[in-house]
Design goal:
The structure is a homodimer of 659-residue chains.
Chain A: E1 20-23, H1 29-46, E2 61-67, E3 78-82, E4 86-91, H2 94-111, E5 116-120, E6 126-130, E7 150-151, E8 154-155, H3 159-170, E9 175-177, H4 196-207, E10 212-217, H5 221-224, H6 236-252, E11 256-261, H7 278-289, E12 295-299, H8 316-324, E13 335-340, E14 364-369, H9 385-393, H10 405-409, E15 420-424, H11 440-451, H12 457-469, H13 473-494, E16 531-532, H14 551-556, H15 566-569, E17 572-573, H16 584-607, H17 615-647
Helix pairs in contact in A: 1-2, 6-7, 11-12, 12-13, 13-16, 16-17
């Protein structure tokens, strides 16, 4: 199957030198990758094959890799000193050289041979992608085809995996977990001999691009694989089982990073079954991984998914904090808790999870989702960097001087070393990798932002557009407008004022206002004739009290609560007047009409690029824009009709709302 | 796998004779079945093996089969002349003898050796069961295990099929279609050599119990099996394909009855694709079946399943009539149109389909569903004979002096010979055949009612209870109460005043008030703050005009419309006062509280039988009653909460309705 090169499509540029010479200071798998990439890039951009020998210094453009012994750059940082004739990439290690090289190629493609100096050290130690790939080849919440790691309960090792590694290395990813956190069926056997050979091959490919390989494991493996009658993490036989498996994996799989664990969550097994804590479970695994420098990534997505809708006191939003806060400081140094950005589940709009800033003595990793499970599933454009920007900038008021989420997950706030950011990724075996061609901006953007949390969404978008579609100003202008308006538009037609979950159950796509309202998932909007929203104040579920002051009070008072989260925190009458001067019901009507119009506008902006974008890519995206326009209108009508029927309040502007 | 004997469980009775003699006038497969059944029954009831030779006349109880040559009884009628010593079964054919014998056994078990005379000629020529069994073994809308006809794309021929044939013959069934009307995958090949051998075996088993074998066919078979590029029923190659297949089937499968066809319905192929009518399609098949005495059963379940919910003029209820009424008189004599009892789809409450009484010059068959797809799925008790009684008694005002549905489908009203009743059946390979032990009353009842449409639901229930659970008066009293209260109770907690479809989409089980409200299936309730219901009057969709007067006017006026159908025909304000003096909203609240209480009461009535019913059967049904009680409470709460939230009207009685 053919596939695109995404943003690594090296096209001819104007200021091509006649020759390129490269000096690499050492050999090794990463150095080899660097060399291959430079050949590919120089041939694509310049029609020139670089030389790697002593004649390098006679070339019109020299690219010199220099190892810096000071330690200032760590393993991953770099400095670039560039002039039109010579580019020095100074780094402390091979990964720094790799990242520096990709940065150099990006600059050469976007701006040409210029004089500049850049210094960059990654903000986050861990910059990770989680694949929810199943061994049968399906991808849970995957919207871009099938897995390129697994098919029919076997691993596949192909050139595509190498190209994938190149792509994600180019944006600074240094850890990838290749299998679904829900470890079902034969997936549990990934930690056994059965998959050893292809696993080693994938690990070696990853190693050549500076990526550690991670696997999701099933906490019940001692019973399921080991034939034991328990998986109690404190049981000696269970411990022996894990020691053997973990030693085996780290000893025999090169470049192995560790494990991701979803335990006691949505039906997955975990330590609770044995009266043990999450710390008991995670630390046991960590104990055996530690001698190998291995990491245990433990997910905090733990809640009661058997809630009674009648119960207005239980609050899923509370559960992550309630389950983990009491264990702050109990987790081993090589355990990282993986916390979703918000307390619910990757909704279009949520407050920041109160565990950020709550658990000051625990290694934390911010988990986001670029697979767009709840944000249009790669059929609607929804550029997520503005959302992630907001999350990273969120001040937690946890006590440190610099205590934003970015400060915390980088380790700066509380001195952690094992921490960072992870995204549930959005790739599959579709021709264009990400279903929607514009969804690649989320993959690219996540990597860039995780590497440098100071970047603006616009800056990232600008780079991605240039690398993907070239430097035509009209393309740049229109695609930039599309990307930057896309998340706000999606929010407008799907999620007014912080109310999410008005979606079709299970598939999580398309409008269904009451789809989850009477279900067991803890995801309610409580709409009635008079109003809508969930009271999470101390008089309600008390979720606001999980935040420190001044946040707790800010959220608890409708007058100070950020309006984009008003209905997340409060049950409000439709007649409540917002700062805009509109009532809530009028805001709902207006935003739904606006959002649908904006979807149509995005389609129009794309259609203006018909002759400026590669035809296949144009056609692929056009079909999705057409769907989005139609589907946004469906959202508009269903939501407006629902709220008109229940509130019986007319639209002030007299627009068509169906009976 | 073991399984129960359902109502053919011959237990010892009190007035056992010391010997039984049987005289059968002729031999043949049916006579052999009669002999086997009598042996089984006499051994079970009396501990005596009957003799079939000349010494029969020396027995204490003589059973004599006498062929009546007058023709008065047809092939299926019989007269029984019984005294404590001698029972004469006088019949015109072997099937009459078979049915007479089962009737005799029923009387012997329920009432003992008494003096009586009964004469019975079946009301309906066709008394059929449709299995929606798929070849992989699953059953579409099946709630009692897997198929006992198919497994893993093969047919299975087992003793269970013979016992099934006994069971359904004992209630007078004379036609069975064994495969799903949605003919997918290899099921299309049932009409080829591939399944010939087991098909012949099943056909022979059926023949021994007077049952004609039918198959569902795929209208696109000429393309799918014949390699043609069209399935146009007027194409000569297509006609040649069907002639060959149909000749082959009737020639080589003994006792073959014909075909059931679902065409141009819910995505199934049909003549519309070629600009042909249903009559074109059905008559073509009928032409080739006619020389063999074969029958084509053509389903009228045709509607637009891609409706836009915004469209308030299109009405699924209209579609069957609109699609077929113009073709009255066009169908061949050996075509039967199979019409669901109501215009929607087996809901808890619907008006009678206007095609009954509409198509006076066409052979019609009434289709009902005992599989309880929308009436509790054999987890809730819902005894359907009261519903069927009402349908049969419905006066169509079509012109004939006697023009009830029973008059029409029996052929009495308009002189049809090919007509009758069919049920989508409720059996599977569960131990007790029907999932819920009490669901067997629907299978038993359907057969009895189709054979004699004058029977009352109570009479049928009384017989079934006695044959299944014995003659203990407490068992009889409690089970009778459960059965007779079950359909009204289910209606109370699920379907107020003719509004159905407030169910979870796809699975059709459990409450979801808005589950279908914005979907494409044409199944809406249009509830808003002020009222609920669908305006099907001439000012609305005009569906009422499909009925003749006085029905059209009766339904069109809320003052005369039967209240149990008020919201089916009218959009009414919640404040509308019913004849009971209650408002509609209060009626909704009251019936939901009542319905849930009645579910609990049914459980209690069953629990009183703990020591009186066979323990395994007691336990099986108890678990289902417990579920029903809980699930009815869930229905009560979700529906009441929904209507309270939207109407904002309080329950007059101040009962708990959740916010």
């Amino acid at each position: 199957m053919t596939y695109t090169k995404a943003w690594l499509n090296y096209q001819p540029v104007k200021d091509a030198p006649k020759s390129v010479g490269v000096v690499l200071p050492e050999m090794g798998p990463i150095a080899e990758s660097i060399g291959q990439e430079l050949i590919l890039a120089c041939e694509g951009m310049y029609g020139v094959t670089p030389v790697f020998d002593g004649t390098a210094f006679m070339a019109e453009l020299q690219i010199l890799f220099i190892r810096d012994q000071s330690g200032d750059f760590g393993e991953e940082g770099y400095r670039i000193e560039a002039s039109p004739e010579s580019i020095n990439i100074i780094a402390g290690g091979q990964r720094g050289m790799l990242y520096g090289m990709f940065r150099v190629l990006e600059r050469l493609r976007l701006r040409g041979r210029k004089r500049y100096t850049i210094e960059s050290i990654p903000s986050n130690p861990f910059r990770m992608l989680d694949h929810w790939d199943n061994l049968d080849g399906s991808i849970e919440r995957g919207y871009s085809g099938l897995s390129f790691f697994f098919r029919d309960n076997e691993m596949t090792v192909t050139q595509r995996i190498r190209d994938y590694a190149r792509m994600v290395a180019s944006i600074g990813i240094n850890a990838v977990c290749i299998n679904n956190v829900n470890v079902r069926g034969v997936a549990a056997e990934l930690i056994t001999e059965r998959f050893r050979k292809p696993l080693i091959e994938v690990a070696e490919i990853f190693e050549a691009y500076g990526i550690k390989l991670y696997l999701s494991l099933n906490f019940a493996s001692p019973k399921r694989l080991g034939g034991l009658d328990t998986s109690d993490p404190c049981d000696e036989q269970v411990r022996a089982f894990w020691k053997e498996r973990i030693d085996d994996m780290f000893t025999n799989v090169p470049n192995f990073g560790g494990f991701v664990v979803k335990a006691d969550s949505e039906g997955e097994p975990g330590p609770f079954a044995y009266g043990r804590t999450h710390a008991d479970g995670a630390n046991m695994l960590a104990e055996f991984a530690a001698p190998h420098g291995g990491i245990i990534i433990w997910r905090c997505f733990v809640y009661n998914c058997q809630q009674d809708w009648r119960d207005q006191k239980t609050d899923r939003a509370r559960s992550g904090y309630d389950n983990f806060i009491g264990h702050d400081g109990e987790f081993a140094e090589n355990v990282i808790l993986q916390i979703k950005n918000g307390p619910m589940d990757f909704q279009v709009r949520e407050p920041v999870h109160p565990l950020f800033g709550g658990m000051k003595n625990t290694n934390l990793m911010l988990e986001v989702q670029i697979a767009q499970e709840y944000t249009g599933q790669q059929r609607h454009v929804c550029y997520l960097m503005p959302m992630f920007r907001g999350i990273l900038d969120f001040k937690t008021y946890s006590g440190a001087e610099a205590d934003t989420v970015a400060d915390i997950v980088s380790g700066r706030a509380y001195g952690n070393r094992n921490c960072g950011m992870v995204a549930v990724t959005n790739t599959g075996d579709d021709e264009n990798w990400t279903g929607h061609d514009l969804a690649a901006a989320n993959l690219y953007g996540f990597g860039r932002l995780a590497f440098d949390t100071t970047l603006s969404p616009e800056r990232i978008a600008e780079d991605w557009i240039g690398l993907t579609f070239g430097t035509d100003p009209k393309v740049k202008e229109n695609v930039m407008r599309i990307l930057m308006m896309s998340w706000p538009a999606y929010e407008k037609y799907t999620s007014p004022l912080g109310i999410g979950w008005m979606i079709k159950p299970s598939v999580h796509y398309g409008p269904d206002v009451e789809g989850y309202e009477y279900d067991r998932w803890g995801t309610y909007h409580r709409a009635n004739h008079m109003g809508i929203g969930v009271d999470r104040t101390p008089g309600g579920t008390g979720y606001t009290t999980q935040y420190p002051e001044p946040l707790a009070s800010l959220y608890a008072d409708p007058a100070t609560c950020p309006e984009e989260l008003l209905l997340f925190f409060h049950h409000m009458p439709y007649a409540h007047v917002l700062k805009s001067g509109k009532t809530i019901i009028q805001h709902i009507y207006d935003t739904h009409f606006e959002g649908a119009e904006e979807a149509a506008e995005m389609q129009k902006l794309w259609e203006e690029l018909e002759d400026l974008v590669e035809p296949a890519a144009y056609a692929r995206a056009l079909a999705r824009f057409q769907h989005q326009t139609e589907h946004a209108a469906e959202w508009r009508d269903r939501i407006n009709t629902y709220f008109h029927r229940i509130s019986w309040i007319e639209d002030e502007k007299g627009r068509k709302i169906y009976d």
